[in-house]
């Protein structure tokens, strides 16, 4: 069962602004990654459903987060259908992120009052997603659907729409500012956050610093 309501998810996304997006099949590496992000100030984290037995890794990761990182809101991404949604809700996912818009996923999430962030690429899809109860709309792939100009254009006639771009967001002031100034609610950042050292191992200290710096940039832009 989710430990956080969909309203808590939406409010925390607005407060911290940066949602790390990550997958690895190794549970110990995944634990170190989410701890580095947590120590850097991240409070939402999207683990992606991309590899074989990803649900088993997520189950252990969620148990670890609940015990060791109590303020972390851990969700699952790359969820395409209702059965997969139900599986991850049973494992305690606090939010569901999808690359596409599937009304059946919305129904499963709404029955449990769990946050659902569908991937949309048009105003019609965004409008339907909001009718289906989505608080935050993911635009994906963000750069390819029109980048920050797309968000600005949508927010003209639909100022109530809260958008999270994912795909193409960089952990730099220039990149984050371009999205936030266009009206993004928060941003999802993937591989660019997770730097490696000369030994090709994840540099957890640098990851923590990059997350912290990215959140600070967001807060300065939002005057938080």
TrEMBL record:
It comes from the Bacteria. The lineage of its organism: Bacteria, Pseudomonadati, Bacteroidota, Flavobacteriia, Flavobacteriales. Pathway: Carbohydrate acid metabolism. It comes from Empedobacter falsenii. CDD domains: KDPG_aldolase. GO terms for molecular function: lyase activity. Homotrimer. Keywords: Carbohydrate metabolism, Lyase. The keyword Lyase applies. This is Bifunctional 4-hydroxy-2-oxoglutarate aldolase/2-dehydro-3-deoxy-phosphogluconate aldolase. Belongs to the KHG/KDPG aldolase family.
């Amino acid at each position: 069962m989710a430990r956080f309501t969909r309203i808590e998810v939406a409010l925390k996304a607005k407060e911290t602004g940066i949602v790390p997006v990550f997958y690895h099949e190794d549970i110990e590496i995944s634990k170190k990654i989410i701890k580095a992000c947590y120590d850097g100030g991240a409070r939402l984290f999207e683990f992606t459903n991309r590899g074989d037995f990803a649900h088993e890794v997520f189950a252990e990761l969620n148990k670890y987060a609940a015990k060791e990182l109590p303020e972390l809101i851990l969700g699952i991404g790359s969820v395409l259908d209702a059965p997969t949604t139900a599986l991850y809700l049973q494992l305690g996912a606090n939010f569901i992120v999808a690359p596409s818009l599937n009304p059946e996923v919305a129904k499963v999430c709404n029955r449990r009052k769990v946050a659902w962030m569908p991937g949309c690429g048009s105003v019609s899809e965004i409008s339907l997603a909001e009718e289906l109860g989505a608080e935050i709309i993911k635009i994906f792939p963000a750069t390819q659907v029109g980048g920050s100009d797309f968000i600005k254009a949508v927010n003209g006639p639909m100022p109530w729409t809260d958008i999270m771009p994912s795909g193409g967001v960089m952990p730099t002031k220039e990149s984050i500012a371009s999205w936030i100034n266009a009206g993004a609610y928060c941003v999802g950042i993937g591989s660019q956050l997770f730097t490696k050292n000369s030994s090709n191992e994840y540099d957890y200290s640098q990851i923590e610093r990059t997350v912290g710096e990215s959140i600070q940039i967001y807060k300065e832009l939002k005057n938080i």
